[in-house]
Specification:
Elements (H helix, E strand, L loop, with lengths): L1 H22 L2 H45 L5
């Protein structure tokens, strides 16, 4: 849990430092430091959902492919 908290502090700090250095505005830096991790978290959840669906399809596909290739060809 401590590692997660320190990573969050680092993430907020980096986001703030980048936004502040680009804009020179503390308010913008603070807003980006708060909003960016929230948006990133939602993006990560969507990414994981997509990969879970792909993983599920891959598990189903090899079985159906075996059935198709095992069928005799009509010649």
């Amino acid at each position: 849990m401590i590692k997660t908290l320190t990573f969050a502090v680092m993430h907020f700090s980096v986001a703030f430092a980048v936004a502040y250095s680009l804009t020179g505005d503390i308010v913008v830096g603070g807003a980006v430091a708060l909003i960016e991790p929230l948006v990133n978290t939602v993006g990560y959840a969507i990414h994981e959902h997509i990969w879970a669906r792909l993983r599920q399809r891959r598990q189903v596909s090899p079985r159906s492919a075996e059935v198709i290739t095992a069928a005799p060809c009509a010649a």
